[in-house]
Amino acid sequence: MNTTGKRVLLASPRGFCAGVVRAIDAVEKALELYGAPIYVRHEIVHNTHVVQTLERKGAVFVEDTSQVPEGSIVLFSAHGVAPTVHEQAAKRKLTAIDATCPLVTKVHKEAIRYAREDYDILLIGHKGHEEVIGTFGEAPDHIQLVDGPDDVGDIAVRDPSKVMWLSQTTLSVDETMAVVEALRDKFPQLLSPPSDDICYATQNRQLAVKQISAEAGLVIVIGSRSSSNSRRLVDTAKLAGARDARLVDTAEEIDERWMDDVTTVGVTSGASVPEVLIEQVLARLAQCGFENIEIIKAADETQRFSLPRRLRLPCQHNSEREAP
Ligand code: SF4
Predict the structure, then answer these.
(1) Which residues share a beta bridge with 73?
(2) Residues ≥6 apart with Cβ < 8 Å to 128
(3) Which end of the chain, N or C, is less surrounded by CB atoms within 10 Å?
(4) What's the pLDDT tens digit per position in 273-303?
(5) Pocket perturbation via mutation, ligand 1, pick of 17, 166, 230, 304 by most ligand atoms within 8 A of CB
């Protein structure tokens, strides 16, 4: 096989973010402290490999707290939950461990604060996404969901001078700002959140994929289809100039025909993807002649989050809501 000129541009940062590391560590620490089974409401993070690995260790994933036996331990995923979920858990006498990413909690707090101040809140996000359901649940009487620019026309508010926007943490930065501009055309006094809702990890991964895409004939994004931030990386790669961009869960899904006439392949991964899956993709690409790897670094990441309080102070037994 002729490998002349074939290369891989490997995006950095990629893969696990601080919120995902914390959520996975929380499940493992709970298993260590309390033993199996530990019930986890919803996929702890949107990655099939991570979920299956934790299942083998004794985690049991459920979609609703009603599926958790009374008196058991239940862990809430990184995406966050509505207050009603905490109430249901308390009613069933479950010990709740809240692994909501602190950056999602920040958005919940913003929703609570601006609802208290009686703002109409326009939440930009994907209908049905677990994180959006949780944030919406903080102030359902004050929040309207905006799922893309097509929704803007139908939005009506009580007082155009008291309206603000929030967003899901894992959206495309560029697409979100386009929606904000459309909202601002309609509501010129639209207030922005005090700080970015789209999290640092999502922004950094999008920045890095933009840098590899202009030169890449193909960009491979490793991530599960349920992962919003991974799907946004595919969109961002195409908008940034990649001739083709594909989402794969694992290396086995890569089709060698995608690389016909391609000399540069870009590789990145969503925030819920472990490095082992990236290594397998790089090994598969090497089999196809793409052995030269160049790392393209867009940002340094040093963010870390401590474990949920109950796992730091395991002697507490009452059900509690960690935040907000
Ligand atoms: Fe937190 Fe961002 Fe990671 Fe989501 S993608 S878990 S908001 S750091």
Answers:
(1) 95
(2) none
(3) N
(4) 999 999 999 999 999 999 999 999 999 999 9
(5) 17
